[in-house]
Amino acid sequence: MNIQVKESCTARILLAEDDEIMRITLSDRLRKHLWCVDEAEDGKAALQLLKENNYQLVLSDIRMPNFDGPRLLKEVMARSPETDVILMTAFGSTEDAVKCLKEGATDYILKPFDMDDLTIRINRLLDMQKIKAKCMSLEEKCREQHAPIVGSSSATRKVINLISQVALSDATVLVTGESGTGKELVGSAIHYSSGRSEKPYIRINCAAIPEGLLESEFFGHEKGSFTGAQTMKIGKFELAEGGTIFLDEIGEMSLDLQAKLLRVLQEREIERVGGLQTIPIDVRVICSTSRNLVQEVKKGSFREDLFYRLQVIPIEVPPLRVRKDDIPDLCNYFLKEFGREKGRFLSISDEAMSLLQGYDYPGNIRELKNIIERLTVLVPSAMIQAWDLPADISSSFREERRNIPLKLADAVAKAERACIVNALKESNGNKTEAARLLGISRKNLWEKLKTHNM
Question: Could you confirm whether the keyword Ligase appears in this record (predicted)?
C-alpha cells in the first residue's frame, strides 16, 4: 500500500491494481497531472484506504484476488456516493463492466488503453464534479431564500401568524432581533407569501458594503458621475421593481443616506448618483436590524422620522433561548439539510438533545446550525451522543461522568446511598415510610444504613 499526500494536489485518486508494474506505471503518470494517488495492491487494501480518506475518484481493476472491483464499487457507493469510479477491464470482462455501470460505476476503460485517453476521462469527471459543486452551492442559496421558518413554540407560531397577515399588504416592515435569530428568513417569507412573489427579491447587507459605495449600490449611478464610474449602473431599487428589497442591518446606515432613503419611501422615486432625472419605482421595503433603534434615535445616530416611517409594521424575532421548544425541530431540520449535502444522516440521543435544549445559544439559530454542521462532519457514529457535543454545552454531563466511580461496585453503592437519602428526605426521616418508598423491608433498610455508615 503506497500513500502519497501533496499540499498542491488538485484531486485525490485511489488506484486499486494487483499487477505491480501496471500499478506503478499508472500512478507515476497520474501524479504528473498534480493528482495525489494512493495505491492499493488489492481490494482489501483499497477498502482500508476508503475508510481512512476521502477521494474524488477511484480507479480500480475489475478482476482482483480476494476482493474484486464490483465489491469495491459497492463499498464506494455505500460510503461515498459522490465519488466517481472508473473500472479497468480486459476484453473478456466487458459484460462485467457494463453490469457495474448499471450498479453505479461512472465509466470503464478497456485494457490495454492509451494513457491520454484515461487522463481525458479523469479530467472530464473532475470537471463535472466542480460543476456539480457549483450547482449544489446555487441550490443551497435558493434553499436559504425559500427556507421555512422551523419551530412549533408559541413564540414562533406568533411570528408565523404575523407574517401571513403582513404578506397581504405592501406596508413597510421593520424586523428586529438579535444576530442569528433568522431575520432574513422572515423577510423572504413575507415576500414569497405575498402577491409580489413572482417578482424580484433583492437583499442588501448595509453593514457589508463600504459607506461610500452604498448609495450607488442602492440607486445606481450615471457614467462619469465619479472616479471609476466608467459605465452606467442600475441600482438595487431599480432591479427590485415590482418586487421586494430587503435592507439588512439598516442601523449601520449613515445619516446622509438615511435622509435619501426617507425621501425614496415618501416619494416612491429615486435618482441615480450623478443623474438629473427621477425614476418612479414600485418596490416594497423590508428592513432588519439587531440594534435598538429607539436608543439609536435618542443618541442621534438614527433619524427619528425614518424610524417611524420604517416601523409601520414591527416584527420582533425572539432569541432562541426563549423558544427552546423549537430546538428539536431545528436540529432535525439541520441534520436533514447537511445529510443531503454530505451524504450522512445522523440522529441525536435523548441525553444529547436534553443538553442542547439546556444551552442558551448567544449566537442563536446560527450558532445551533454551525454546531449541527460540525457534528455532521466529526461524529464517527450514526447517533450524536452527549460526549460528542462542544465542551460549553456538555460541561455538566462531563462533570457527572468525572464523579462516577470506575468500579461497578462503587458506582452501585453510590447510587444506592443517593436513593436512600432521597427516600429519607421524602418521608421526613420516617424509616418505615422510607422503606416503603424504596420497595424494601424496614429490616433491610436498617442493614443498608449500617453498610453506608448512615
Answer: no
